[in-house]
From TrEMBL:
The chain crosses the membrane at residues 35-52, 72-93, 105-123, 129-150, 162-184, 196-214, 274-292, 298-316, 323-341, 347-367, 388-408, 414-433. One of its GO terms (cellular component) is plasma membrane. The gene is mdtG. PANTHER family: INTEGRAL MEMBRANE TRANSPORT PROTEIN (PTHR23517:SF3), RESISTANCE PROTEIN MDTM, PUTATIVE-RELATED-RELATED (PTHR23517). Its main location: membrane. It is a multi-pass membrane protein. It is found in: Cell membrane. The keyword Membrane applies. This is Multidrug resistance protein MdtG.
């Protein structure tokens, strides 16, 4: 893989980044060359996922049973504020990581996370839960965005899909394990404080590792930018390395076909997750399922989602991004339809597996496609913009699902989100082009032959 000594970089790394690279350390791109740091970041992201997982089973039940929150829209307010906070922070995380370095942003995210489980344990009213979820959203935006960017920095272009698969598998695998564990803890010891003690441990370990062991990776992005090779088809020639923040936002959100297609698909994907997080436990409880069974269903979906990404991320490096994303969205739509039609644990379990598989096809592949298209010089900002839209889906999903559920019931809300998901897959199929260079090259050679 490509390598360069620090002395070569000193001429074009700006001063704010000069302190972030250890003197004498050789910077190289590649998963094998950076295996230790990459593995450490996988562990850190698992802890980030655990902070989210502590809420998946317990918080909707806490709102209904402890704080008496009955209206679906009000009950989903914690997801709404989480989504808004995380979406906005995602955007700034990309800009800040370019300006100040990746590691300081990661540490700041963990510092914000520390009070979250304490607030959830001691909250005397639902308003305190809302505040905790604002902090959780800010923390997730800073920590998860930064671990994504740092892994993309380290591995270079060749195995980007596999790297994103590992990253998201660690995060959402931890969401699943924690959701399952908190379900059993809640059934055995009550909804508070036992389930949230896990969050205290996750925050302490994550902050310690990020402060003491994680190294800055911005120099790797600078190295890739210096050796960046334009696409043979000339598609990205207009996306030169010098783009303003506003230009990056417009290209990622609306103008560039692949980037904007990925952004809308990410938003709709998290509509699904907001729905699953906020309303599925209430639907399952209304059917008479125990808290432990609700926890199992709440864990099954992110477990398949997390583990599946170990496969789908690597497959997207071989088969390409576009159709993996489109088919994943359609599979999610079918799974949601089954959940809306069913009333038994067995069918819901099958649908949860399908929903997790569809999400696994989409999640790392969308991130990899952003990395494919965005120039290394503004890639962190593009990732931040994409994650702004993607995690804005939590807020839109909570609001939309809550309004529809209050007016027509939970099952009608599920059908509404399923329809949007199927439409999103169609947009990807029509508008997005294949972004992976290897796949594009093979297709072009086949056509020329």
């Amino acid at each position: 893989m490509v390598g360069i000594d620090r002395s070569v970089l000193e001429g074009w790394i700006v001063k704010p980044f000069a302190h972030t690279t250890t003197p004498g350390r050789r910077i190289e791109l590649g998963l094998r060359q950076n295996a230790a740091q990459f593995t450490l970041l996988v562990v850190v992201n698992a802890l980030v996922g655990g902070m989210l997982g502590q809420e998946r089973t317990v918080l909707p039940l806490l709102g209904e049973q402890v704080f008496g929150v009955r209206a679906y829209t009000a009950g989903l307010s914690f997801i709404l504020v989480f989504g808004v906070a995380k979406a906005a922070t995602n955007y700034f995380a990309g800009t800040w990581s370019d300006r100040f370095g990746r590691k300081p942003v990661l540490i700041a995210g963990w510092l914000v996370a520390v009070p979250v489980p304490l607030l959830l344990i001691w909250a005397p009213s639902w308003g305190w839960v809302i505040v905790a979820n604002v902090l959780l959203g800010i923390s997730q935006g800073l920590t998860w965005s930064t671990t994504v960017v740092m892994k993309i920095d380290l591995v270079g272009p060749a195995r980007r899909g596999f790297a994103m698969g590992l990253n998201e598998a660690a995060g959402y695998g931890a969401v699943a394990v924690t959701a399952l564990a908190t379900g059993y803890l809640a059934e055995s010891y009550g909804l508070r404080p036992a389930p949230f003690l896990l969050g205290i441990a996750f925050a302490a370990i994550g902050l310690g590792l990020s402060t003491l062991a994680v190294r800055e990776t911005h120099g790797h992005a600078r190295l890739e930018a210096a050796s960046h090779v334009a696409r043979a088809d000339g598609r990205h020639d207009h996306l030169h390395s010098e783009l303003t923040n506003g230009e990056v936002f417009v290209q990622t959100s609306f103008r560039e076909p692949a980037l904007s297609s990925a952004s809308q698909a990410g938003l709709v994907n998290n509509l699904n997750d907001g729905l699953a997080w906020g309303l599925f436990p209430i639907l399952f409880a209304a059917a008479g399922l125990s808290v432990s069974k609700i926890g199992l269903l709440a864990a099954l979906y992110p477990a398949v989602w997390g583990a599946g990404q170990l496969i789908t991320g690597a497959l997207s490096d071989r088969w390409g991004r576009k159709w993996m994303i489109a088919c994943g969205m359609w599979l999610q739509a079918v799974a949601l339809g089954i959940i809306a039609l069913s009333s038994s644990f067995e069918y819901w379990a099958v649908a949860a597996v399908m929903l997790g598989a569809g999400t696994a096809m989409v999640y790392p592949t969308l991130l990899a496609s952003i990395g494919d298209v965005a120039h290394p010089a503004w890639r962190a900002r593009a990732v931040g913009t994409y994650r702004l839209w993607r995690d804005g889906g939590f807020a839109v999903g909570a609001l939309l699902a809550g309004i529809v559920a209050d007016a027509f019931g939970i099952r009608a809300a599920i059908w509404a989100i399923a329809s949007l998901t199927a439409s999103s897959g169609l947009i990807v199929a029509v508008r997005m082009y294949e972004t992976h260079r290897h796949t594009t090259t093979v297709q072009k050679e086949s056509t020329d032959g």
